[in-house]
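Human: I'm a chemist; would you kindly supply sequence and structure tokens for a protein?

Assistant:
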Amino acid sequence: MGFIGYVKQEMQIIKERDPAIKTPLEVFLYPSFRAIIRFRIAHKLYERKHYFLARWFSQRTVRKTGIEIHPGATIGKGLFIDHGHGVVIGETSIVGDNVTLYQGVTLGGTGKESGKRHPTIGNNVMISAGAKVLGSFTIGENSKIGAGSVVLSEIPSNSTVVGVPGRVIKRDNIKMPREDMDQVHLPDPVYNDLIRLQQENEELRDELKYIYERLQRLEDKKD
């Protein structure tokens, strides 16, 4: 795809996924639009081994947009970064098609690996605000990562993940995240665990009360 094709594609993506946009010209004001278009240029320089120029161009983009995409990363078509400030995508990251990232997302390494150090994000994945995906593993396609989650291991396709560390709390949700763009209405496993503990505690109290009453009746009979 040529440069004009990338521009048209990115414009269409923003118009489809951001309900706040009212006119086509607003696309040119979006940090996401500028960051991704400039990434395509930096990536071409990187592929041609112009590493310094690629990083120089990339760092200028960071200063202008607040979005840091290493020019060595592999980015598929249809990436949308909503708001975008604080987004970091590491050098060996692989991002599939139609992925959505919100502000503060990090696709990073753990500092322990060599070679492939950053995550692979499957097609149609949504990663909510402030989430961190750290390490060389795969987030399966059609998955959704909850806001503030820290994901440190492989996630199957069609999963919903929340928590620190992130854990799968829902599987086989076939609706594609890029269609509903919902990063709020996710299950809360911590709340569910607290409710279960409360119920278990009440059951234990009832059992102890029953045992105490039985013992009291036995004592009364002895008297």
